[in-house]
Amino acid sequence: MNRAKILPVVGWRELVQLPDLGLSNIPAKIDTGARTSSLHGEVVEEFEREGKRYVRFLVDYDGEPHECEAVHVDIRGITSSNGETQRRYVIKTPLIIGDVRFRAEITLADRSSMKFPMLIGRSSLRRRFQVDSGYSWLQTPGMDVKKGHKP
User: Fold this and answer.
1) Structural domain spans, the chain
2) What share of the chain is helix, strand, coil (3-state, %, to 5)?
3) pLDDT, tens digit, for every residue of 116-135?
4) Residues 47-79: pLDDT tens digits?
5) Residue 27 CB: number of other CB atoms within 10 A?
């Protein structure tokens, strides 16, 4: 008996939401070659509140900086696609892609030179989505999946 779960399909780019950070419609590249998801965030400060470690950071993806705070769960060495290892803050926060909401580990990185301010790695995709790299915006209502823009 085949018990394969039918998973929603994402394209190679999607608009995603980070509701606990107050961020919506973030353009994200879907990247099965990357293990961890990453968000363009410039760390402003670390602080403690009620015994938990937090990080305050700025996210700029729409021409306007957004100040965010999140519990930081770790600082890890992450090896980028060019082979360089960087120490990055890791946060855990709800992520929404289409109708699917889940908690994701996300590193904060300088993605200012990248086309997309967010990258969704395979640990966030695993057992939640299938990827069809021939399309875009499959989980983004109102977007033209072939042309990649609003009709």
Assistant:
1) 28-129
2) 5, 55, 40
3) 999 999 999 999 999 999 99
4) 999 999 999 999 999 888 999 999 999 999 888
5) 16
Query: How far apart are the C-alpha atoms of 100 and 8, rounded to whole Å?
Result: 9
Integer Cα distance of 145 and 71 in angstroms: 35
Q: Phi first, then psi: what are they for 100, rounded to 5°?
A: -100, 125
C-alpha separations of 116 from 2, 16, 50, 105, 126 in Å: 37, 12, 34, 18, 21
Beta-carbon-side half-sphere exposure of residue 21 (alpha carbons within 13 Å) = 34
Q: Note the pTM of the prediction, 2 decimals.
A: 0.89
Q: Which CATH number fits domain 28-129: 2.40.70.10, 3.40.50.720, 3.40.710.10, 3.30.530.80?
A: 2.40.70.10
